[in-house]
């Protein structure tokens, strides 16, 4: 696995797994807002700062009651930035606006923040009359040309999904190196 793909997998895991470090920083930001959240209310506010020991993000948080506790979730556009130079962007992610933490789109940039390394776009779609979440992945070489394209279908988390449709791997000069068609069996409640 290439370093870039390893970094992306790490990002996806951190995005989909609501780690306790994120929640700690989100709760502190919520407390600083000094907001009175009553049952049935939904409040939104901006967040900018540390989300774990090494990453800094800015975006919007939604706060609401769930099982007698305040739940904080990301929504809308989020940007991972360099804390020493906030203009230097590492990653952008677009969450749904319903507070379900579903990624609609994300982009990862090279370490020097000058080139796009990866783009993921996700949407809900019907395949065999079953509603699934389909995420299209596009990887780029450092020179900007296509490297790898594929789709993953899942019911929730793309890390637990299966490749679907045509997967294409390119040479650095843009020529197609290989293609493979993935046809998982999709039934209500399972993808095999």
What's this, in brief?
This protein has 192 residues and is mostly beta strands. Helices cover 15% and strands 54% of the residues.
Structure notes:
This protein has 192 residues and is mainly beta. 15% of the residues lie in helices and 54% in strands. The chain has two helices and twelve strands, in the order H-H-E-E-E-E-E-E-E-E-E-E-E-E. The strands form two sheets. It has a ten-stranded antiparallel β-sheet. A hairpin with a 6-residue loop joins strand 5 and strand 6. It starts with a helix and ends with a strand. 18% of the residues are buried. Residues 7-18 have low confidence and may be disordered.
Key words describing this protein structure:
mainly beta; 12 strands; 2 helices; two-stranded antiparallel sheet; 10-stranded antiparallel beta sheet; 15% helix; 192 residues
Spans of at least 5 consecutive residues with low confidence: 7-18
Strand content: over 45%
Tell me how many strands there are: 12
Report the biggest beta sheet as strand number plus sense, adding barrel if it closes.
Answer: 10 strands, antiparallel
List the helices and strands and how they pair.
Layout: H1 3-16, H2 20-33, E1 42-50, E2 56-66, E3 69-82, E4 85-95, E5 103-109, E6 116-127, E7 130-140, E8 146-154, E9 162-170, E10 176-182, E11 186-187, E12 190-191
Antiparallel strand pairs: 1-2, 2-3, 3-4, 4-5, 5-6, 6-7, 7-8, 8-9, 9-10, 11-12
């Amino acid at each position: 696995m290439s370093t870039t793909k390893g970094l992306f997998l790490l990002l996806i895991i951190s995005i989909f797994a609501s780690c306790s470090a994120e929640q700690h920083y989100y709760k502190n930001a919520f407390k600083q807002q000094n907001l009175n959240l009553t049952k049935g209310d939904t409040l939104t506010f901006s967040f900018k700062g540390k989300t774990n020991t090494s990453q800094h993000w800015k975006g919007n948080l939604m706060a609401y009651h769930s099982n007698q506790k305040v739940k904080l979730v990301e929504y809308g556009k989020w940007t991972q930035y360099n804390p020493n130079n906030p203009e230097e962007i590492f990653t952008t992610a677009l969450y749904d606006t319903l507070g379900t933490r579903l990624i609609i789109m994300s982009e990862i940039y090279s370490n020097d923040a000058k080139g796009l390394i990866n783009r993921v776009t996700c949407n809900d779609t019907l395949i065999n009359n079953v509603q699934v979440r389909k995420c299209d992945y596009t990887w780029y070489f450092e020179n900007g040309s296509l490297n790898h394209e594929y789709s993953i279908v899942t019911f929730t988390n793309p890390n637990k999904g299966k490749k679907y449709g045509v997967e294409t791997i390119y040479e650095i000069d843009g020529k197609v190196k290989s293609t493979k068609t993935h046809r998982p069996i999709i039934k209500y409640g399972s993808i095999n």
